[in-house]
UniProtKB/TrEMBL annotation:
One of its GO terms (biological process) is cellular response to misfolded protein. It is a single-pass membrane protein. The keyword Ribonucleoprotein does not apply. The chain crosses the membrane at residues 214-236. It is found in: Endoplasmic reticulum membrane. This is J domain-containing protein. One of its GO terms (molecular function) is Hsp70 protein binding. Pfam families: DnaJ (PF00226), DUF1977 (PF09320). SMART domains: DnaJ. It comes from Balaenoptera physalus.
Length: 344
């Protein structure tokens, strides 16, 4: 019976990989642990044959186990902006894919950037503090933890955020662009398969196309262009334009009598519009012009507000100067029009 067990454990054609002279259990266990440690040291490689340390791998595993953004950054829930920035700087440099090649380092880097981008935004942080932890505890029927990245995503990619902090430079000089975080354990296998498929697709696209296939591809574009030209030919041109358009004949400049709004007409305008018809048309022109100025003014204010907020968030002096120097020209025109209306 003992011989049979030994034969099953060690087939005749493959002897045991390790054997000690005394044959005791303690010696076998010690040799097995030594072999495992040796194998770990020999196979510690990331993507592209780049090596990584055990400390880097443990750091990635810690990020993966985190249940909320505060744990990812390693700060308390009442952490200040300076504490958040200090934690982000330290972790971003530590887990950047150019420096950390451990499996999962890319996802860890994305999670760190996403966590800081959300917590450094007062509105997003308030919303996350109110709903984030509650949603994290939810599980699906298959007991899969809720992915807290989905409802609280940043407005800026982790790589763009990294460039804001470090001026777009990294010691290795090999900068990559990444999308939002994924929690799929099979992410890397799917990514390699996608890269191979993308390579084959690019090779097929590089092959010379026949005249027929090129025509078929351009046919929808040609149809759209033809329909657009026919529509423009059949449509009646309006009697005026707020802008100079020589191709349509709007080359003669005029102003409305009430608000002095500039507009352009063709050479036959005076024959068609006089008296009451001209006054009615100029009311329409003034209304269109005011709508256009209001929309343009809103866009200018929106742009100035966004630049100001970004400058305050990242303490960027260049953005601050740009926001302060941005002129609200259309808003000034709108104020003048309102003054003319009140005066009239």
């Amino acid at each position: 019976y003992i011989d049979a067990v030994r034969r099953n454990k060690y087939p005749e054609d493959r002897p045991p990989e390790s054997h000690d002279p005394c044959g005791c259990c303690n010696c076998r266990k010690a040799q097995k642990e030594k072999k495992s440690e040796h194998e770990w040291n020999q196979t510690r490689q990331g993507e592209g044959n780049a090596t990584y340390t055990e400390e880097q791998l443990l750091g990635v595993q810690r990020i993966k186990k985190c249940r909320n953004y505060y744990e990812i950054l390693g700060v308390s829930r009442n952490a200040s902006d300076e504490e958040l920035k200090k934690a982000y700087r330290k972790l971003a440099l530590k887990f950047h894919p150019d420096k950390n090649c451990a499996p999962g380092a890319t996802d860890a880097f994305k999670a760190i950037g996403n966590a800081f981008a959300v917590l450094s935004n007062p509105e997003k942080r308030l919303r996350y503090d109110e709903y984030g932890d509650e949603q994290v505890t939810f599980t699906t029927p298959r007991a899969r933890p809720y992915n807290y990245y989905r409802d609280f995503e940043a407005d800026i990619t982790p790589e763009e955020l990294f460039n804001v902090f470090f001026g777009g430079h990294f010691p290795t000089g090999n900068i990559h662009m990444f999308s939002n975080v994924t929690d799929d354990p099979h992410y890397y296998r799917r990514r390699h398969r996608h890269e191979r498929m993308q390579t084959r697709k690019e090779e097929e696209e590089d092959k010379p196309q026949t005249t027929y296939s090129a025509f078929i591809q351009l046919l929808p574009v040609l149809v759209i262009v033809i329909i657009s030209v026919i529509t423009q030919l059949l449509a009646a041109n309006p009697p005026y334009s707020l802008f100079y358009k020589s191709t349509l004949g709007y080359t003669i400049s005029r102003e409305t009598q009430n608000l002095q709004v500039p507009y352009f007409v063709d050479k036959n305008f005076d024959k068609a519009y006089r008296g009451a018809s001209l006054r009615d048309l100029e009311k329409t022109i003034e209304k269109d012009y005011i709508d256009y100025i209001q929309t343009s003014c809103w866009k200018e204010k929106q742009q100035k507000s966004e630049l100001t907020n970004l400058a305050g968030l990242y303490r960027d002096e260049r953005l601050k100067q740009k926001a302060e120097s941005l002129k609200l020209e259309n808003c000034e025109k709108l104020s003048k029009l309102i003054g003319l209306r009140r005066g009239g």
